[in-house]
Design a protein that fits this description.
This protein is 45% helix and 19% strand. It has 514 residues and is an alpha/beta fold. The protein has a six-stranded mixed β-sheet, sandwiched between helices. A five-stranded parallel β-sheet has the order 2-1-3-4-5, sandwiched between helices. A three-stranded mixed β-sheet has the order 14-12-17, with helices on one face.
């Protein structure tokens, strides 16, 4: 039975309220002054306190402050006749759980208690009921998806349920949703295999990586906005939904959408295409000095700033002052934050931030990270917690203060892989676990989206016989040599480069300063 303390110097006038709450199953303790209330909260474990603001002796606000010193986690509801804004602000600043204006009726009090004591459970129960009712419709809907836009809308629905069920203790139901998502990924992979190549021969298609700057960043610049262009490497759509509330105090959400990463959904290809405004084969053909092949030494993304500047010129925005920065570790992040004021007059300040990508790779190599990011839900929480304490959030706050419009996006997502698929080839094959390119490969066709001519999907090739294979759903490629060892090592790790909802359907957002 929940134990409630009600503190009011006119407590005798509230007998009707007290009887009503007792009838609803609450145990009520009363007192008529702040001093006695402080003694009671030290002697008894209460679940919530109702506190009158206007009392002789210790005022309600003074009592509230002392209660929070004694029992910081105890929810306190302030009840007052006053509608003064200053009192409301002081109470809210003291972290009250709710604020009620007299006269209050018993149902108001009951609702407040339910929000405080049962809110999480009620939300969880509603999510559970809602998903159970929606399950059949989702199963039928996914069989009828014919366009990329329909797939993007369906993916949004799946993630909305995934985030709602994060609050639910129903592990069995989460397992059902995971199975449904796996089935959706199998169907989406088939959709991509049937349609992706046609997107490069005049067929209607979604916005792809190389089109984002022209379609999203350029319009902001043409409107005279200063743009903080933030590319968070490897940020999935569900992770964007998780961090979105962290940014809401500083930004209005002007525009938000989804687009499709190119294949391979890997940094070398997708992010270079993003900054160049052209597909990798076109980069190699027209700007070969900025293209580094898979087998060549050195960073594959070392010319992103140059590619972006060239694209801005092509878009008629060559007169805009462009600054490019890349952050790969905490030291670099702090260094950029310390000097970011030097770029306040930039027309477009581009920051590539590698933390989320580094985190996904760390899950492969580091046991502690494997435990912290054990599944998608834990991964989302970890990304949100990181952002809340990171230099990046400080940079975004600075951008808001300086009046920048923030365009936030990523280059590709990542998927938690579980099932191995054997591939045989020469030592010159690419090392990525989700895609392979080269010649003379032996593989299981049913596990792959096979492209016999990479040029037809905008990719360069080294030899005339080269082909590409992209792993579907949650599969990952493993060589026969030490097969079992590598299966165990890479299973349940986050990888990218292949075909899945998580890797390919990725977010962008346009945020304006509050």
């Amino acid at each position: 039975m929940p134990n409630i303390l009600w503190v009011d110097d006119e407590i005798d006038m509230l007998k009707g309220h007290l009887l009503f709450l007792e009838g609803k199953g609450y145990a009520i303790t009363t007192c008529n002054n702040g001093a006695d209330a402080l003694d009671l909260v030290q002697e008894t474990a209460f679940d919530a306190v109702f506190l009158d603001e206007n009392m002789p002796g210790l005022s309600g606000l003074e009592t509230l402050e002392k209660i929070k010193d004694l029992v910081p986690e105890l929810p306190v509801v302030m009840i007052t006749k006053s509608e003064e804004e200053q009192i409301m602000e002081m109470a809210i600043g003291s972290k009250i759980a709710d604020y009620l204006i007299k006269p209050v009726n018993p149902n108001q009090v009951l609702l407040s208690l339910k929000k405080i004591l049962d809110g999480r459970q009620l939300v969880s129960q509603a999510a559970t009921r809602g998903y159970q009712q929606e399950f059949g419709r989702l199963t039928m809907d996914m069989q009828q998806l014919r366009t990329w836009e329909e797939w993007a809308t369906f993916y949004k629905k799946l993630l909305q349920w995934e985030l709602k069920l994060d609050e639910s203790p129903e592990e069995g139901l989460k397992g059902v949703l995971a199975s449904q998502k796996k089935e959706a990924n199998e169907l989406f992979a088939r959709f991509i295999a049937n349609n992706y190549q046609q997107w490069f021969s005049g067929s209607e298609r979604p916005m792809l990586s190389h089109e984002l700057v022209g379609k999203v960043v350029a319009p902001q610049l043409r409107q005279g906005e200063k743009v903080f262009f933030l590319v968070m490497d490897n940020l999935r759509y569900d992770q964007w939904l998780a961090i979105k509330p962290v940014l809401s105090p500083y930004f209005h959400h002007k525009e938000e959408g989804l687009y499709n990463s190119i294949l391979p959904s890997a940094t070398q290809y997708a992010r270079n295409a993003l900054f160049a405004g052209m597909m990798p084969a076109d980069i190699k053909a027209s700007q070969p000095q900025y293209w580094v092949e898979d087998h060549e030494e050195g960073s594959k993304n070392q010319f992103e700033g140059e590619l972006l500047d060239a694209q801005l010129v092509k878009l008629g925005l060559g007169d805009k002052k462009s600054v490019y920065q890349k952050v790969t570790n905490l030291r670099g992040a702090n260094r950029l934050y310390d000097t970011i004021h030097q770029h306040k007059n930039a027309d477009v300040l581009t920051v590539v931030y590698n933390f989320v990508d580094a985190l996904s790779h760390a899950k492969t190599d580091t046991e502690v990270v494997r435990e912290l990011a054990s599944d998608d839900s834990a991964y989302r929480r970890l990304v949100k917690t990181w952002l809340e304490g990171s230099p990046l959030l400080k940079m975004l706050q600075w951008a808001s203060q300086q009046g920048f419009t923030v365009v936030l996006t990523t280059d590709h997502g990542t998927v938690n892989v579980h099932r191995p698929s054997k591939v045989v080839g020469t030592k010159h094959l690419t090392t990525n676990l989700r895609y392979k390119s080269g010649n003379g490969m032996s593989y299981q066709s049913k596990h792959s989206f096979v492209v016999k001519d990479p040029n037809k999907i905008g990719l360069p090739k080294q030899h005339i016989a080269d082909e590409c294979i992209f792993a579907l759903s949650d599969l990952f490629y493993v060589y026969p040599n030490r097969y079992n060892h590598f299966v165990q090592y890479y299973r349940n790790t986050y990888q990218h480069g292949g075909v899945s909802l998580e890797e390919l359907i990725i977010p962008y957002a346009v945020l304006t300063a509050k």
